[in-house]
Amino acid sequence: MKNFIKVKRTNNIVYVQRIKIYYDSILVLGLLAVFSLFTACQSEPMGNVLYVAVNGDDNSKGTTIDKPLKSVQKALELIQQRASKEVEDSFEIYVREGVYELSDRIVIDNRYNLKSLRIKAYNQEEVVFSGGRSIEGTWESKGENIWEIPFQGTINQMFVEDKRMTRARWPNLGEYVRPEKVEVTKKMMSFADSSPINFTVTDQTELLAYAAWHFVRQKIQSYDPADNSIHTKTEIGPECSSTKLMPNDRVYFENNIEFLDSEGEWFLNEDTDVLTLYTASDPNDTAYHYAVLETLFEIKGDKSRPITDISFEGLTFQYTTWQFPEEERKGIQAGFWGTHIGEPVFSPPAAIMMSYSENCEIVDCVFVNLGEGAIALENGVNHMNIENNTFQDIGSNVIQIGRISNYIGEGHPLHLDYKDEEDAPAFNVVTNNHLKNVATVDKGGVGILIAYSNNNKISNNLIEEVPYTGISVGWRWGNDGLLTNAHHNEISYNEIRECMQYLSDGGAVYTVGNQPGTVVQNNWIYNIGGSGIMAEGIYADEGSGSMVISNNYVHDIQDHDYKGHRNLWETMTVENNGCTKCENPFNIKNERVRYSDFPDNKPSNTTIYGVQSKQ
Fold first, then answer.
1. Can you list the pairs that 264-272 forms with residues at least 24 positions away whose Cβ atoms lie under 8 Å?
2. How far apart, in whole angstroms, are the C-alpha atoms of residue 498 and residue 510?
3. Which of 360, 400, 408, 420 is within CB 3.0–4.6 Å of 310 for a Cys-Cys bond?
């Protein structure tokens, strides 16, 4: 007799119950089936297999390894030609080593009538899908470490040997100035002792600021050296937030040639089409890259017909760009940005975007040098598996589950739950991934975001070097207890360190809203902080309720191991943290805030946390 799981979805909540069945009579048949499946998996690919290589030919059939196609786009075109309207079919695309520069995003949808599709690196070869280009031409020396090259187009990122370069900024990387006075509605800030250099403002010059939990990027209108003040084109910071940019927040300026004074800094003059680089070495001896695409792959099913069983295996996704839109990038929360209440809110796109898809997976892949996010799961993505991947130098939110964008919030500027619970992503797994150097462009981004989504499991991930929150769960602020599609999520066995390095009011794990069935347990959290204020280990923010927070080891935290703000206190279980079995009593700071600092212990066995060796 064996336990099986039965899932029932009722009234916006998914209930999980165990049922028992007898299976002795089918044991032999089951073993034979498993053996047959095992032997089939050991054989060579059979059936609908296409091969792609950088030296291939798109005029070939691509059905043999010695006569491959040149592009995945052509492989998909052939699949579409062979697609039957009556019968769904399965295909495999094996990609040989090399760099494949994409001219546009690759969209996989129901026109291919797929039963399944696997895109895989052949024989573990190094395959790179790139949204970037190389800078072509000859650099000309202008003296004093200044080099120029003609360039037509736009660049907001440059890379050398897979390392992100710094766009001309002042003060230089790692340094900041702090305003003495900020008048938000007057669009003005002034400086005292740390006054800016005297510079000429252009249409390209930007203000960037770390403001509480916001990261702000907006255009500068003018600079007045007489009183050391700047004026911005629009109000300073996100107008829809109660907290904006304040005196003593960290500020710097970017994208002006007068800031070009450090090794590796660069600037593109969009009026003269001249790209300028500051370097002591000859740049003609080095390869430089820039990004042109926001998204590399889009998996797009329909609500009435989700696309199923799409898998990416052993691939590298590199170089995506980010946009500076008309509304600017005034961060509100977790990479989302907007302006006024009643106007649209936006969220970062990703290298791989997915909607209305089921039973898909991304495994053994590498995501690197991205301007926005890596993976975004939107409406109707269920039973997705994201496993054994490496994410490094990701511009904003690395993995988003329940991404929505370009919407107007209801009441709160960020609130807009799915009207149909079937649209809410559910039962997705993110496990055994390494996330490092996160939110390198938008410092308000997070490692993993679960918004209006349920029954997801986030386990055994290593998350490190994050300017704000490591894992963020929930998307409703306020303590009214209203239930949403965020519930029954599991955050377990993750190793989370070096978060909250720049911003404030967040934590290694951040929760918000009433989330029945959500558990944060058996995580190892340490070395959190470095920002101004309020850097917590586990931060249960407004309305957090109906959750269990237990058996976590949390130490070396800037502020508190656990902090609750306007929680539904009677529904929260916080116990056995920092120990095998103990109480974690609350200290009452005020009527809104309680905190608990757990026993300052490290786990006796650290190997069970974070990334596990692949079996």
1. 264/160, 264/165, 264/166, 265/165, 265/166, 265/167, 265/168, 265/169, 266/158, 266/165, 266/166, 266/167, 266/168, 267/167, 267/168, 268/151, 268/154, 268/155, 270/154, 270/203, 270/204
2. 15
3. 360
Query: Alpha carbon 87 to chain centroid distance?
Result: 36
Output the pLDDT for position 289.
Answer: 98
Instruction: Give residue-wise pLDDT tens across range 296-305.
Output: 999 999 999 9
Q: What is the SS3 assignment for 488? A: coil
Residues 542/590, Cβ–Cβ less than 8 Å: no
Lowest mean pLDDT among 102-116, 155-169, 229-243, 307-321: 229-243
Kindly report the number of other CB atoms within 10 A of residue 605's CB atom. Answer: 6
Q: pLDDT tens digits, residue range 114-159?
A: 999 999 999 999 999 999 999 999 999 999 999 999 999 999 999 9
- Integer-rounded Cα Rg, in Å, for the chain is 26
Instruction: Give the predicted TM-score (pTM) of the model.
Output: 0.91
CB neighbourhood size of 68 (10 A): 25
Q: What is the full DSSP assignment across 58-115? A: TTS---BTTB-BS-HHHHHHHHHHH--SSS-EEEEEEE-SEEEE-SS-EEEEGGG-EE
| 218: helix, strand or coil | strand
The residues with which 346 forms a beta bridge, in sequence order, are 337
Q: Residue 311 contacts by C-beta under 8 Å, 6 or more apart in sequence?
A: 116, 117, 118, 119, 120, 360, 361, 362, 363
The 3 state secondary structure assigned to 536-599 is EEEEECCCCEEEEEECCEEEEECCCCEEEECCCHHHCEEECCCCCCCECCCEECCCCEEEECCC
